[in-house]
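hey so u asked for the seq, here:
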Amino acid sequence: MSAGIAGIVVRDVHKSYDGSTEALAGVDFEAPDGSLTSLIGPSGCGKTTLLKLIAGLLEPGSGEILVNDRPVTGPGHDRALVFQDFALLPWATVLRNVGYGLELRGVGRTDRETVAHRLIERVGLAGFEHRYPHELSGGMKQRVGLARALAVEAPILLMDEPFSQVDEQTRRKFQEDLRDLLSGERRTVLFVTHSIEEAVYLSDRIVLLSPRPGRVTHIIDTVHDRSMDPDRIRRDSAYIDTVDRIWQVLREYLA
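ran it, structure tokens below
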């Protein structure tokens, strides 16, 4: 895609359940090509529903969703999902879990295991290739899920609260690791989170949704200097001001 064109375009999207419960009402935003865009808003505002629509797992009631200039009509190899519940195969080793998406695409065992070994090392799980999910901590399971999503090399990465089930220390480390893993790769990432700090730290753009039915109320482009180390970013005035700005908006929704 040419510079300045969005990797994901959402135009006037509406979605209702059971013909009566309106989840989304006229959602409009763009996630620029190669950027990390976060969706944030109060519980029940339709963040996960929107992610599933972009993934092609649900159909909108009306409106349009484009990925790389093509309408979304269902799941596709151009999109990979990372779930908050890990969604690992309990009967498969770490090695096979990481390579499973490639296996489904018909990639031979030698090639997919080469990719899996490389990514297992990148996410810090070297030595755990032959462990099973029940032998891993929550944080380790999440690393496996992330490695599996990266393995298929989809240009669009959709992440549904991927760090919500780990402790705060692990969560911060995951945030830093994710930025490192994505550096040098031109992937468009859409990231659902409830954490304001996480959204501001990770994102190039933040999309705020209203209480149900979800509508886009603000789009904020972050301005803090990403060349700084993580601790300096979190102390930077631009980071702090953006966190406060978002909190002021979300606090109104809780009144």
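The beta strands are 6-17, 21-32, 36-40, 62-67, 70-71, 79-82, 156-160, 188-192, 205-209, 216-221. The longest strand covers residues 6-17.
lmk if thats what u needed
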